[in-house]
Amino acid sequence: MIAACCTMAVSLAAQAQTADEDRMLTNAIKYLDIPYAAHTLDLDGPEELTLNCDEVDCNTLVEYVLAESLCPIINGDVSETTFAEKIQMIRYRDGQVNGYTSRLHYITEWIDNGVQHGFLEDITDKKSSDTQTIQLSYMSTHPQEYKQLANSPENVQKMRQIEKRLSGQTVHYLPKDKLPYNGLAWIKNGDIIAITTNTPGLDIAHMGIAFYADGKLTLIHASSVEGKVVASNITLAQMLKEHKNWTGIRVVRMKK
Question: Are residues 79 and 161 both part of a single domain?
């Protein structure tokens, strides 16, 4: 189902053809003040492609911005059908909707899927020598936190298998003590920022879009604290320091 706000956002995205990084940032800015809401994809009934730009969480915000930015502009417009197709490829393993566990819940796999299908580039893989080993178990060990896992041993078992498959791989990241307030030359406006965490069983705690304000690297993100999409009034480096369980960032870039 496609909310009216998605249609409007797609239309606005067609108004300017810009460089990829500018287009990502322009599309992110359009979502400022959109309300934050958790679990907008976790509806009753079978898993289906859901588009709801009227309210977003940190993940769906990034997905909608990325999908809009990937859509070609034809005769000054973006196809609503193409937008939905992009979301499906971004959100689901190999773009196939096949139950709750076909959704890319762990951002490690979300990134891998995007790189594999050619629309994402892992920048930290090329620019940072620091690595971490992924160990995932959070969803299968906390099923009560997820509607589709709480009463489904079958889904819990499927998720456990996915976690086992993803665990053990090594990924590059940038530790938070290596990120200066003014950012780094290789982190660009419009880059996707995935914040790593030391919470047992998790890989990523939060996501947003890189934004330089007055020469300082900040984040456009869906904030549960502020209840809406905001451009942070503190730097990304400060945000990382204020959260003890945030360990650093992975930087991913749209690739067309």
Answer: no
| CA 116 – CA 223 distance, rounded (Å) | 29
The whole model's pTM is what?
0.92
> Do 45 and 149 have their domain in common?
no
pLDDT tens-digit series, residues 127-180 = 999 999 999 999 999 999 999 999 999 999 999 999 999 999 999 999 999 999
Distance, in Å, from the CA atom of 33 to the CA atom of 27, rounded to the nearest integer, reads 13
CA–CA distance, 71 with 225 (Å, rounded to integer): 31
Residues in the chain, overall count: 256
Of the three residues 64, 97, 118, the one that is the final residue of a domain is 118
